[in-house]
Specification:
- The structure holds 2 protein chains of 2 kinds.
- In chain A, the strands form 4 sheets. In chain A, strands 5-6-7-2-13-12 form a 6-stranded mixed β-sheet. In chain A, strands 8-15-14-11 form a 4-stranded mixed β-sheet.
- The longest helix of chain A has 18 residues, at 234-251.
- By secondary structure, chain A is of the alpha+beta class.
- Chain A is globular.
- In chain A, helix 6 (169-184) crosses helix 11.
- Helix content of chain A is 36%, strand content 25%.
- Chain B is mostly helical.
- Chain B has a single domain (4-89), classed as ACP-like (Non-ribosomal Peptide Synthetase Peptidyl Carrier Protein, Chain A), CATH 1.10.1200.10.
- Chain B contains 4 helices and no strands.
- Chain B has helices at 8-22, 36-39, 43-57, 74-91.
- Chain B starts with 7 loop residues before the first helix and ends with a helix.
- At the A-B interface, helix 10 of A face helix 3 of B.
């Protein structure tokens, strides 16, 4: 089946990030989904089943095609050997997992998906899907994990990609100008930056997965409510993360006046699996002063007000327009325009709250799945990525950083502080919170 | 005088219509009692619903009303909104 489909604006943005990441590190914009399999899993049978799966064969045959003044597109090739993109590792060690599997790079110009099947010395087994972020957002990764299971049917052809944007270039252009002015109004040169000094290469990222229990989660929920979080805990998670980040700067005896970040907003229709390939993301933004960050209750209120204002102003839709418009310009020009206000620094940190995982993926090819971890990519700058996700066991945090952004001792202190503050009894003492 | 602001059932149905039009996949069944979490509705979509109530009906939900039990489903949100609209009208 030959396929051709234009990149979405969000895909193209991830391509831009990939380009920036490759300038400073060995690894591009690759995301990973790790499934903890029941120890009874037969890894060889799974590998054979995945290799025969039509969706996997299609995924590994995709690549990006780009030419000047032509909309970039995804194209399927022929002849890709699916088994070349599946590895089985017997007697896998944690070193191998951290230093090889989690550092696997994938080119955007071909075979943007790879599967590792791992058998550890303690008997545990994992399946790790690595994929290029330009082709898969977080929901897309879950869809991919379901789609490539042995025996799974072909994904409906009309649902492989999202609907093409029907917006004319002129409203896209107007929204682009609106957002550019909006961004230029931000004082990026005062923004908190973890990466300092040279623009040299950065090391590979390190990851720390923290699983909070349901009991600890209840404390987090109470703290969130006491800090004024509404509509779920995301704003509280972000406020506490920024507070802990500010402590890093305090230890460095630095006092950046502003923290700035973007928060991904999924533009997928809810309630169904939707499409398999391509990103459907837009963003809202939060800009907080150092004083606001120092007081999480103020920070929660400020984030809430900013998000509400931006939703009212239609920022996610306008930003999606901007991303779509930039598909029409060469990547170098896109890069220049993005760097104009930001000087290459996109945010103080990459933050994402994936919300509630629900039941997740219960089994893979008939094998019970015992747990699931999303490993986000780590763009540097900013060099620090923090992801929250609610799952059946409680709250899962994945913290990842490059050492040029957080030194090993800072990284250890960061995740300890984060857990301590989320689960500690540090509700505001002014009596205004509702517990 | 009759108004949708006095009728939680009709307001809940209106919220479901909004979700169907703006947020949900066309094949998804949304009833007033369906928990938002089952529909995959996230915090951003709930904020949009609250803003819709402000914009369309002038019902501003105060912070203390934005509690998880009121944001569980279209029905719960509509009942909360109607109660606040009634309290606001009585106090006027």
């Amino acid at each position: 089946m030959e396929l051709r489909h234009p990149l979405t604006g969000a895909d193209n943005f991830q391509v831009l990030l990939d380009r920036h990441m490759r300038k400073r590190s060995r690894i591009g914009n690759v995301v990973r989904l790790s499934l903890q399999l029941d120890p009874s899993a037969d890894l060889s049978a799974l590998a054979t089943g995945i290799a025969a799966n039509p969706n996997f064969r299609l995924a590994v045959s995709l690549s990006m095609w780009r030419a000047t003044l032509v909309m970039p597109r995804w194209e399927s090739g022929s002849g890709a050997d699916p088994l070349a993109h599946i590895d089985i590792h017997e007697r896998c060690t944690s070193d191998y997992f951290n230093n090889v599997v989690l550092q696997r790079d994938l080119p955007i110009s071909g075979s943007p998906v790879h599967v590792d099947l791992l058998h550890f010395a303690n008997g545990s087994k994992r399946l790790v899907i690595s994929a290029h972020h330009a082709l898969f957002d977080q929901r897309g990764m879950v869809n991919l994990a379901n789609a490539i299971q042995p025996g799974a049917p072909s994904w409906p052809r009309e649902q492989l990609f999202p609907e093409r944007s029907k917006q004319h270039w002129w409203p896209e252009f107007r929204n682009t100008v609106y957002i550019m002015f909006y961004m230029l109004g931000s004082p990026f040169w005062f923004m908190a930056r973890l990466l300092r000094g040279s623009r040299g290469p950065v090391s590979n990222p390190v990851f720390k997965v923290v699983q909070l229990s349901n009991d600890q989660c209840e404390v987090v929920d109470r703290n969130a409510l006491a800090h004024g979080a509404r509509f779920g805990n995301s704003n509280y998670h972000l406020a506490i993360t920024l507070k802990v980040l500010q402590r890093v700067f305090d230890h460095r005896r630095e006092q950046p006046p502003y923290f700035w970040l973007s928060m991904p907003v999924s533009t997928r229709r809810r309630g169904s699996a939707g499409h398999l390939f391509s990103n459907s993301l837009s963003f809202v933004f939060a800009r907080l002063s150092a004083d606001e960050v120092r007081d999480p209750k103020r920070a929660v209120a400020s984030i809430h007000a900013q998000v509400k204002k931006q939703l009212g102003d239609g920022i996610p839709g306008r930003y999606a327009s901007l991303l779509n418009f930039f598909r029409r310009v060469p990547l170098w020009l896109y890069s220049t325009l993005v760097n104009l206000p930001m000087r290459g620094d996109y945010a103080s940190l990459s933050f994402s709250d994936l919300g509630n995982e629900g039941e997740g993926i219960a089994n893979f090819g008939g094998v019970p799945v015992l747990g699931m971890v999303d490993y986000a990519s780590v763009p540097s700058p900013p060099g620090l990525t923090v992801t929250f996700k609610r799952n059946t066991e409680g709250l899962q945090l994945v913290i990842s950083a490059v050492y040029e952004a957080l030194a090993p001792s800072e990284f250890d202190r960061f995740h300890r502080d984060l857990v301590q503050r989320l689960t500690g009894n540090d509700a505001p003492q002014d009596g205004t919170g509702t517990v | 005088m009759y108004s949708v602001k006095n009728d939680p059932t009709r307001l809940a149905n209106e919220l479901c219509d909004y979700l169907r039009e703006r947020v949900l996949d066309r094949n998804v069944l949304c009833t007033p009692g369906t928990p938002f979490i089952e529909l995959g509705i996230d915090s951003m979509s709930i904020i949009e619903l609250v803003m819709y109530l402000e914009r369309k009906h002038g019902i501003v939900l105060p912070d203390e009303a934005l509690r998880p039990e009121n944001l569980r489903s279209a029905d719960a949100l509509a009942r909360c909104a109607v109660a606040i609209a009634a309290a606001s009208a009585a106090g006027r």
